[in-house]
């Protein structure tokens, strides 16, 4: 799955020229998913955004298995795309079926022909609001070239999202994006409260929130609301 740098530059320019006001954010993100699929010669791609209840939800996919991958993340509450969002860093697996990190989603994904997955966070100024995800139908080791190129692509998608926010674009994806931004505000407020109460730096405060959310199997924004209500978190 080699990456052509010229094709990457052309695709970034093409996607960067899309106006989410004229095209609509839903269609713009569908185009981004399809461009990702074609450009990186993967078997499929999808985009998830944080939605109501602090859960990552499907907004766009290049094909049906890509949509299924995102649905499985929603259903099981685990997987590389969720971890990429929570950790705000890329998460990769060469084979979902053999990866012990996700015992629930792994076999289900393999049953639908999804084996290798790379999830990369989509960051706005407030932090991650979603993920761009690619998959392969056979075990595959995504290399640093894929990682660097897809990171660059998420920055273009982030630009689309920022333009949609500035223009107050309407539609399903725009509504979900607003949910994501609202949740990020709550999380940032809670992080500040934890920093003050526990005398922690920003990274350690967020890690405490994230660890509690994982152990309690709760959405991160609900943990943040607990903190803002004055409830104590256990390490």
- Element pattern in H and E: HHHEEHHEHEEHHHH
Q: What is the residue-mean pLDDT, rounded to a whole number?
A: 86
What's the CATH class label of the largest domain? Answer: Alpha Beta
At CATH level 2, the architecture of the largest domain is 2-Layer Sandwich
The helix/strand class is alpha+beta
CATH superfamily of the largest domain: GAF domain
Approximate strand percentage: 5-15%
Morphology:
globular
Counted up, domains total 2
Regions with pLDDT < 50 over 5+ consecutive residues?
Answer: none
The number of distinct β-strands equals: 5
CATH topology of the largest domain, anyone?
Beta-Lactamase
Largest sheet: 5 strands, antiparallel
Distance between the terminal alpha carbons, to the nearest Å?
A: 42 Å
- The percent range for helix content is 55-70%
Gyration radius, in Å:
17 Å
The helix count comes to 10
Characterise the protein shown here:
The chain is of the alpha+beta class. It folds into 2 domains: 5-168, 2-Layer Sandwich (Beta-Lactamase), CATH 3.30.450.40; 173-228, Orthogonal Bundle (Arc Repressor Mutant, subunit A), CATH 1.10.10.10. Helices cover 57% and strands 15% of the residues. The chain has a 5-stranded antiparallel β-sheet with strand order 2-1-5-4-3, with helices on both faces. Strand 1 and strand 2 (56-61) form a beta hairpin. The longest helix is centred in the last third of the chain and has 27 residues, at 172-198. The radius of gyration is 17 Å and the shape is globular.
